[in-house]
Amino acid sequence: QVQLVESGGGLVQPGGSLRLSCAASGNIFSINVMGWHRQAPGKQRELVATTGSGGTDYADSVKGRFTISRDNAKNTVYLQMNSLKPEDTAVYYCYADITLGGPYYMRDYWGQGTQVTVSS
Description:
Helix content is about 0%, strand content about 60%. It has about 120 residues and is mainly beta.
């Protein structure tokens, strides 16, 4: 079993900052990709940022404001969010593509989601 536990969401004023964390635990052989998606009310879930062997990718809407980082030793991914805007309001979901220790196959996992609200 693999579990992703998220933290760091909350209410922040426009222009403020938040840092999201997501730690993966369980029978993990390796984590291939970790990242963040978000879903606003009435909107489709969208990719925010990912990090893997090929580097990092960001949605155009967050480039220059968000930074994704990863601590491989702790199986943890972070999302530093600066200069937050009201349109960033959404539920943010941690994502991980994981190779299990046994059996050895790749599978995608999702966290439970954490609410980020940007409002004055």
